[in-house]
Design brief:
The complex is a heterodimer. Helix content of chain A is 50%, strand content 15%. Chain A has a single domain, classed as Orthogonal Bundle (Arc Repressor Mutant, subunit A), CATH 1.10.10. Chain A is of the alpha+beta class. Chain A has helices spanning 9-21, 27-37, 44-56, 83-100; strands spanning 60-68, 74-81. Chain A has a two-stranded antiparallel ribbon. By secondary structure, chain B is mainly alpha-helical. Chain B has 2 domains: 3-62; 64-214, no CATH class. Chain B is built from 10 helices and 2 strands; from the N terminus they run ααααααααββαα. A two-stranded antiparallel sheet of chain B has the order 1-2. In chain B, α5 runs antiparallel to α7 and α5 (65-78) crosses α9 (180-198). Classes of the chains: A alpha+beta, B mainly alpha. At the A-B interface, α2, α3, β1 and β2 of A face α3, α4 and α10 of B.
Chain lengths: 111, 215
């Protein structure tokens, strides 16, 4: 994997949220997922910037839903992780696990 | 909420539409409206729009760094005396002044910017190659647009004679009264607009990134 194939921290969190949400992954639930699970209040614009980068890298694909009145007649854009995206997640997890293991300071619950 | 309170700020939506390029801007606007109608405040909405616009503009500039390099190189080269001398040498060598009017005048006045733009295109070419967006058509298009913009700027000055003042001791030349910093900004903008219009490079970056990811 070259430099561009790596996942940045924001990309990693957004991609994980997309995978967790399955068919319901669009901007609003992704931002709520990050707030609830990661305790990170991320602006919707930053989430879309990360999603656009992931899409350019081929890690997510998107499709347009139907327009709804509560969105002012605007359609939702649903995102879905591609096989390349899932592979990138596994590669990142493996790399992080290797880096994490064998550090005495990080063993146990408290630092 | 009353009718007005349940409507998101129209100006903020307009700003979002005009500062966020790309296919996701409608979905982003829809998401913000949805959150707003769930109970978020107008100040929250404005903050979200401001962040989205900033992120979008910064991302756009970062993707197009070769265009900025070209604009800066072109502006510096415009004040580079040896390049002007190349133009003067070509004049005397190729006898362009023998051409019929208006060609002789056009070449006399635009040959120097043409050579400067041509030289600066090497910087643009290297930048496009690094970002894997190089196309000969981009360079040609940028060069033509750049010359056209410079020509428009050059000849439109005649419509504003109050912007010109006589140069002491030289009855044939006039200088602009516009401050130097503004002249430099205008020149940078001219090169930048030319490159921006000449190099629609975003799609090619997308393809190269996708190819990288698929490996």
């Amino acid at each position: 994997m070259t430099r561009r194939g790596y996942l940045g921290e924001m990309e990693l969190m957004v991609l994980l949220a997309v995978v967790r949400l399955g068919d319901e992954a669009y901007g609003v639930p992704v931002s709520k997922e990050l707030l609830i699970l990661a305790k990170r209040e991320v602006s919707v614009g930053s989430i879309y910037a990360a999603l656009e980068r992931l899409e350019r890298k081929g890690f997510v694909s998107s499709s347009v839903g139907d327009p709804t009145p509560e969105r002012g007649g605007r359609a939702k854009r649903y995102f879905r992780a591609t096989p390349n995206g899932v592979r990138a997640l596994k590669t990142t997890r493996a790399a992080l696990t290797k880096l994490w293991s064998g550090i005495p300071l990080l063993k146990g619950g408290n630092l | 909420m009353t009718g007005k309170e349940s409507s998101p700020p129209g100006l903020a939506l307009w700003l979002l539409r005009h500062t966020c390029p790309g296919e996701h801007k409608e979905a982003l606007a829809g998401d913000l409206v949805e959150r707003f109608r769930e109970g978020q405040t107008r100040s929250w909405f404005w903050k979200q729009v401001f962040i989205a616009s900033t992120v979008s503009v910064v991302g756009s500039i970062r993707r197009r760094w070769p265009l900025f390099c070209y604009a800066i190189a072109g502006t510096i080269a415009m004040g580079f005396e040896p390049l002007r001398q190349v133009s003067a040498s070509l004049h005397s060598l190729l006898h362009w002044s023998d051409l019929p009017w208006p060609w002789s005048q056009l070449i006399f006045e635009l040959s120097s910017p043409a050579i400067v733009a041509l030289t600066s295109l090497s910087i643009l070419a290297v930048g496009l190659e690094i970002t894997r967006s190089f196309r000969w058509a981009y360079l040609l298009r940028t060069w033509i647009i750049n010359l056209t913009l410079i020509a428009i700027g050059h000849y439109s000055i005649d419509m504003f004679p109050w912007l010109l003042r006589s140069v002491p001791g030289d009855p044939y030349h006039k200088a602009l009264i516009v401050p130097g910093a503004m002249q430099i900004s205008l020149l940078v903008s001219t090169f930048l607009v030319a490159a921006w219009l000449g190099c629609p490079m975003v799609e090619h970056v997308d393809k190269s990134e996708r190819r990288t990811a698929e490996r």
